[in-house]
Every structure is written in structure tokens, then in C-alpha cells.
Amino acid sequence: MHRPIIRALVVSKVYCCCSVLAGVSSHLLDRLQSVPDAAARLIFSARRSDHITPLLHDLHWLLVPERIQFRLCVLAFRCLHGTAPTYLAESLQRTTAVEGRRHLRSADTQLLTVPPTQRSTLGDRSFPAAEARSWNRLPAFIRNASSSVATFRRHLKNHLFRSSYYTN
Known about the structure:
Layout: H1 2-16, H2 26-44, H3 53-59, H4 64-80, H5 86-89, H6 127-137, H7 140-145, H8 149-165
Helix pairs in contact: 1-2, 4-6, 4-8
């Protein structure tokens, strides 16, 4: 009974604009992760001393860093398939569009060009840089296989869920 209410009022607000948090410190991500952790404890009536990972796993919730990557990759998918606003889509560039890379093997991989940045503190956190890095980190079968947003989201979430709960 508590699950839909908590998901609607708490978790959706935490995950709403998390893509702007790409590149923030792990300390800040840990502070943000404490909110879904507390929501999971509330749903399961768990104590603060109980381990949180099994609860998050049962809820099928992504951890905050994976949620950030999820949001960035979905936005990149929408940009590449023409369903995102044009001002966002224009900020991304495929490697095939770069003159010197057209004849390389990487031209067939659906990778994005990471723009050079002046400062690692702000420039690396910019939308084009963070989104291109997140997209390029995806396995090729996820980048290339999907034609609809719903299918892409499902494959992406399953991949990020497996990588966060089964490889750590």
C-alpha cells in the first residue's frame, strides 16, 4: 500500500532531474542515495541497521549513479532518433559526422563524439560531454538494437540493474 505513494511522492522527485547531477562528487551522490534508501526502509518497515541493497533489489530501483546514467542515455536516444528538442539534439555529434573518423571502424559503432572541455569541474559536467560519455559507455547491443524508446528503456534499465546489483 505504501509503495505507490512513496514512489509518487518521494522517489519520482529524487529521480526527476537527476541528469543534471552528472559528474557531482560521490559524497553528494551518497547524500542523495539516502533518500531512496529511507523510502525503501519505510516500505519494508526495516530498521536503519538493516542492509539496504536487498530492499532496493526487491523494489527494482536503480542506484542514483545508474539512474543518472539511465536518464542521460534515454535523452541521448531521443536526441539521436529525433524525438528530443532540437536544441539538445544539435549539441550531440556522432563519430561518423567527424571528417577524420568516417573511415575508421569506430564509425559503425553508433558512438558520440565527446566535445573537448576547458575545465574538468564544469566542462565535463556539461550536457553534451556527460551525455556522450554515458552513451559511449553502453554496450553496443543496447545502442544499436532498439528502435522504440520503450524497448530501449527496458533494455537499458535491465543492463544497469544487472551491472549495479550483480557485479559489485
